[in-house]
Design brief:
With 356 residues, the chain is α/β, with parallel strands linked by helices. It has twelve helices and 14 strands. 3-isopropylmalic acid (IPM) binds next to α4.
Length: 356
Amino acid sequence: MKTYNIALIKGDGIGPEIIDEAVKVLDAVSSSFDFDFKYEEVLMGGCAYDETGDPLPQETIRIALKSDAVLFGAIGGEKWDNLPREKRPESGLLRFRKELGVYANLRPAIVYDELINASSLKPEIIKGVDIMVVRELIGGIYFGEPKGRDDNKGYNTMVYTKDEIVRIAHQAFKIAQKRDKRVCSIDKANVLDVSQLWRDTVTEVAKEYPDVELSHMYVDNAAMQLVLNPRQFDVMLTGNIFGDILSDEASMLCGSIGLLPSASVGEKIGVYEPIHGSAPDIAGQGVANPIATIGSASMMLRYALGEIEAADQIDNAIKRTLQEGYRTGDLSQFDAKEVCSTSEMGSIIANYATKK
Ligand code: IPM
Ligand code: MG
């Protein structure tokens, strides 16, 4: 029997509720395979600040680095919004990504037929959408120097080095090879020097992948094309901030941001997390949608642990649950046969994910 060590970061807001459901599903699915999980819970975000004065305690990094993977809920909330920037939950998350070196953030946006009416867009526009946003995660304007502010001026710097662009581009092309073999690289090369370097470098890397078709698009146009004709996209390759924005937009094609999982990977270890935030307004009520987090657990099985069959079982269980009309509150107006709580949703998926 193999045991996988998973670092669990529940975080703030709805984080603990959704992580509990992902753990429920992982344990259920592992019962039909010869592996199990050992979880170690560590702190990050507002709860870590409250307990230790630091949104990212050193202990969290230490445990994460010796685990097989990190499963993470969400962080942040109004309560901590007025702290100095380096004490804010978001700073903890950014430092965490940087320390772990998870430079590639994979954000799939798949429109389920069962939820075709849940999107604000017309069914004929979104049917069959299957996009993978590959977002650079530890560079760009989020981390560039110089940055600062005084009473009169605030500034950040968008910086990319060639090496940083090369490694994320390779990720995008490799992923595209396993999909529809199309990469659309997003930039603002008509205005920004950093984007021109991005475009030139991606074009160079593309030569190593003659089987993949590369196109380039300005980010403003990409935002428009995503709602005009989203099926044109297979893999969207983006820098940090453009990917942050476009992945939220892509999530709305799918009906609810509560559905979208993500994987952040690098050379060392991966972090698996829903793309949504901590939703403090609904925290503790048992109404959050756990599907994005359960989907992230499935990505963890697939990408970090190589347990493809188990990952497929979870993905199929999610599909079946939606097909049968089970919905959490966020999707209750869309073809719901039964509206369920966070924990009921987790139990239904766990049950379907267990091979009988
Ligand atoms: C995300 C979030 C984070 C980001 C915040 C919470 C720092 O929006 O993961 O998309 O901007 O990367
Ligand atoms: Mg975001």
